[in-house]
Design a protein that fits this description.
289 residues, N-(1-d-carboxylethyl)-l-norvaline Dehydrogenase, domain 2, six-stranded parallel β-sheet, three-stranded mixed β-sheet, 14 helices, 9 strands, globular, 3-hydroxyisobutyrate dehydrogenase, oxidoreductase, NAD, 6PGDH_NADP-bd
Length: 289
């Protein structure tokens, strides 16, 4: 039996913590690091090794995963805090944060210049905290084909399936497409619920009509259930949804995407009104007031 790869998980936020939990549950030797120590201590109780720094976390790792909020955080961990320099020769860096196409290309350039012996995979995920906890993520992976077998046990521990694209950067492009559709779905749910309210319909009646509809995906059905319970604790925070829409618009001629541009402006106003840390479902409440 092949030896299990050693994994270092850097970033234990809303996505990183359940992902790291699944790595440990799968029996993969896992070192963890987080800017705030609390989440790391919880994983230590499950059997993870807690590192004092990103550099310490990755020294013996075969696979390093970064799952943080934005490109600035990725660069800080990789360069300022010594992760990239400390990685073992031949190790795989699976960059799974959503940072967009241009920033992914900059990261790839850094790896080529500073650590050409490290293999970079651009591998963001489709799914939010709930699917991460349930191992129902989809990894949108891209990078060299020759490391697919090596990374498979890690991705299999995190996700229900892995979709391989082309060279690094393809995964980030697929993620922007995925999250644009997600944004439209979230907005559609919110506006449908708000329309029902404006038409004088009881919310329970609207939810009953939509649940089970062929138009409603599993993801949308879960969101509708949460709206029905007035539950807006973040699984996919509105601020991150806005970030992802803006990452997509940054790469294209926004005049060709007027609906997405309008959505981004509306979400920006909601964030400015203090709703950014709530789940995207909070739009349903916001539009009714």
């Amino acid at each position: 039996m092949a030896e299990k790869p050693r994994v270092a998980m850097l970033g234990l936020g809303g996505m990183g913590q359940p992902m790291a939990t699944n790595l440990v549950r799968a029996g993969l030797p896992t070192a963890v690091w987080n800017r705030r120590p609390g989440p790391a201590r919880k994983l230590a109780e499950r059997g993870a090794e807690v590192a004092d720094s990103p550099a310490d976390a990755v020294r013996r790792a075969d696979v390093v995963i970064t799952m943080v909020t934005n490109a600035d955080a990725v660069r800080s961990i990789a360069i300022d805090q010594g992760m990239l320099a400390a990685m073992a020769e031949g190790a795989i860096w699976a960059q799974m944060s959503t940072i967009g196409v241009s920033e992914t290309e900059r990261i790839a350039g850094l790896v080529r210049e500073q650590r050409p012996d490290v293999v970079l995979l651009d591998a963001p995920v489709a799914g939010s905290r709930g699917p991460a906890e349930q191992r129902r993520l989809v990894v949108l992976a891209s990078g060299p084909e020759q490391v697919r077998d090596r990374i498979a046990p890690v991705f299999d521990a995190l996700a229900q399936r892995t979709v391989w694209g082309g060279p690094a950067g393809t995964g980030s492009r697929l993620k922007l497409v995925n999250n644009m559709l997600l944004a439209f779905l979230a907005e559609g749910i919110a506006e449908a619920m708000a329309l029902g309210h404006s038409l004088g319909l009881d919310r329970t009646a609207v939810l009953g009509a939509l649940q089970g509809s062929p138009l409603v995906s599993h993801w949308a059905a879960e969101k509708l259930e949460r709206i029905g319970r007035d539950e807006y604790a973040a699984q996919y925070p509105l601020s991150l949804g806005l970030k992802d829409v803006n990452l997509a618009l940054y790469e294209v001629d926004i005049d060709r995407f007027p609906v997405a541009n309008s959505l981004a402006a509306q979400w920006q106003r909601a964030v400015e009104h203090g709703l950014g840390e709530d789940d995207v479902t909070v739009l349903a409440r916001a539009l009714q007031h």
